[in-house]
Amino acid sequence: MGSVESRPKLTRTQVEQIEQLYLLEAEDLHRYAHSRSWVRACDAQDLVQITFHEAVRAWEKVEPLGSDERRRWLRQVLRNKAVDLWRKQKRVDLAVDVPDLPPPSDNETAEHVELMIALTSCWKAIEQMPPRRRMIALLVWGEAWEVKRAADHLGLATSTVRVHLREARLQLRASVGHLVPFIEDEEDWEPA
Predict the structure, then answer these.
(1) Of 3, 10, 34, 69, which has the fewest CB atoms closer than 10 Å, so is most exposed?
(2) Residues 3-28: what's their mean pLDDT?
């Protein structure tokens, strides 16, 4: 690990300003973290905390900024920290993390390759969706969140989340349905 920098000495007023900034921006920053396609839902809160830690360390630079500039500064730091985290994790493909199984037959290998192509195509199609729809698809399908949990987290009605999932499913059918015939069978699919 690199050197650990100590926290700067802050006045009581500065601490109160940072606390106020946290109260104003943390929830929005958390949503922003979820809107980044490469940020896993389980890392979003940690990234918010790391971002505010950086704000404390750089308070001399952050303090004189206006509210919009502070918001931009926080988002830029979060984005940079998210990229750093993504690079450290080297983005693991969950589809290939299969326990030891007997070697597949030639037919099974071909089927596995077809499914991997279909899965990759599905995720690429999801990445091209509008931000809110992409976020909902990633939370519900990628992170296996229940619809209600995603709705509560995003501050949306459950019905709105369901509509976005239906639209996402329709987009997937249109773009990769020929590769993933089971999409047609999953009209009301939700994770267990």
Answers:
(1) 3
(2) 83
